[in-house]
Amino acid sequence: MHCKLIGVPLQEGASQLGCEMGPSALRVAGLAAALSGLGHEVSDLGNLSAPTGKVELHPNDVIQNLDKISAWTGILADAAYRESGDGMPIFLGGDHSLSAGTVSGMARRAAEIGRPLFVLWLDAHTDLHSLDTTESGNLHGVPVAYFTGGNGFDGYFPPLAVAVATSNVCMIGIRSVDPAERAALNATEITVHDMRTIDEHGIAVLLRTFLDRVAEAGGLLHVSLDVDFLDPTVAPAVGTTVPGGASFREAHLVMEMLHDSGLVSSLDLVELNPFLDERGRTATLLVDLTASLMGRKVLDRPTRSY
């Protein structure tokens, strides 16, 4: 596999500063070496430059940095489409607003080659707010609504080339949903597995069912991994901590199953805030999880000392 590392120093979609340092932390933690050590060709394409943009004011006056997030969305959509033509783009975030661009760009690529795009959303949150319903104004809470063709983005975000069907989105690890997002979920065909479902059925059964659907449809699979998918006791470097997340073992199992499926075409690593980390342990964990996704077996896992 040709892995293309693309840094996204984006923090304007979140309320707490620090995510712009995420790409550097992942590089320092040895992401490129881990992937090349597994036999992959690795190209580090550097960081995308912060774009400039101008959009009209939105009636929801709590919204923060709409012009910047809209511009980032366009830049990222182009990058995802371009770099997925001959390799696997791995986006080093940056807050989760970046997925508005990465997923929409991958949807364009999938449509061009005549295959559906599926999205595995590993997160504590659904990120399904619209520009009208967000109460925090932080736009890392809207990407799923945008890339699935939700209402209210026209004139504010770039026009979608292709919307992702909500039936092609599977969310695992959800445990914090606002009332407006819950109402929006009920109007979609998104598959949502919250932590209770995981506790009752086990994460492997739930993921396998989704992967079987992707394989049967001949789809491409985009994986979006938010640090807060993980329990904060194992991954503290995130500004939106929610107790009760996925364990170290569950997260590695997910990644190993994704590797075995052979379906993953692109990856987001988002919401890593090194300013909140403990001696780099979260960045190192994300590198290890990416290595599991790309073929590292449990017997090959390195011993860590913190």
Give an account of the 3D structure:
- This protein has 306 residues and is of the alpha/beta class.
- It has one domain: Ureohydrolase domain (Arginase, Chain A, 3-Layer(aba) Sandwich).
- It contains ten helices and eight strands.
- An eight-stranded parallel sheet has the order 2-1-3-8-7-4-5-6, with helices on both faces.
- β5, α6 and β6 form a beta-alpha-beta unit.
- The relative contact order is 0.17.
Instruction: Write down the CATH topology.
Output: Arginase, Chain A
Average pLDDT figure: 96
Per DSSP, what share of the residues sits in E-state strands of 2 or more residues?
15-25%
Taking all Cα atoms into account, the compactness measure Rg is: 18 Å
Number of helices: 10
| Main sheet summary | 8 strands, parallel
Q: Which CATH class applies here?
A: Alpha Beta
The run of helices and strands is EHHEHEHEHEHEHHEHEH
Which CATH-level-2 architecture? Answer: 3-Layer(aba) Sandwich
Instruction: Enumerate the spans where pLDDT stays under 50 for 5 or more consecutive residues.
Output: none
SS content category:
alpha/beta
| Silhouette | globular
What is the count of β-strands? 8
Order of strands, widest sheet: 2-1-3-8-7-4-5-6
Number of separate structural domains: 1
What is the CATH superfamily?
A: Ureohydrolase domain
